[in-house]
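Minutes, project check-in
Item: structure for the 260-residue chain
Input as provided by the requester:
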Amino acid sequence: MDYTCVLVEKKENIFTITLNRPKAFNALDVTLTQEVERALEECSSDPEVRVVILTGAGAAFCGGGDIQEFDSNPKGAPYCCHEITKYLNRAVIEIRRMPHPVIACINGGVGGGGLSLAAACDLRIASSSAKFSQGYTRIGLVPDGAWTLTIPLLVGWGRACEMFFTNPLLTAEEAKEWGLINWVVPPEQLKQATWELAKRLAEGPRQSFAIGKQNLNRALMTSLEAQLEEDRRGLVMAAQTADAREGFRAFLEKRKPQFN
């Protein structure tokens, strides 16, 4: 299968999906989110795959939605949000439904929809240089990709509210302390540490992992699918507001937004 915005590699029963828009910090546009979903479907149906790694090329894991596309698309930001979340939601569901463990290898900055993707994974390992940001409210939007479900499950209600209302920029160590990620390693060790974890999982009890993941999902999936739709609806509504328009312009002009 041909891809333009992701790299895929299968090696020793481990399938690696790399978001590959490094110049845009792997920001999510329609094409990238479509291809992430397709790549996840490909490895989910491959009987040889036992573990999936999701990572980013360049300096970032994923910076969230592509504000440049929001601003330049003639159909407008609400349309972009609607289309991107359509495929982002499918990607999140695919991560949860596939029987294999999915590891988010967080090589750099992550925010917005990128954080939603990472939170949907089973395990998260990050470079000590990575930074974590909720990101949405900085530009007048609201979380998508079931952020409002998965982040509170990971960090707790109080921390999730703190992330939403104050948008702190967390270091990798702070993210680990909060429960957002599982492990932190030096940047030069990230690739090897992720591979060793994936190998250990690939050599584990495949059927046990699949059944256990299914059981972990039982209470989550009904809420997840409903929350994905709620988040999508909320994002499209927020994208139509004056706050969002000001947020987009401020982001592109590299200034602090003036929300009225």
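Outcome recorded: The longest helix spans residues 206-239.
No further action items on this chain.
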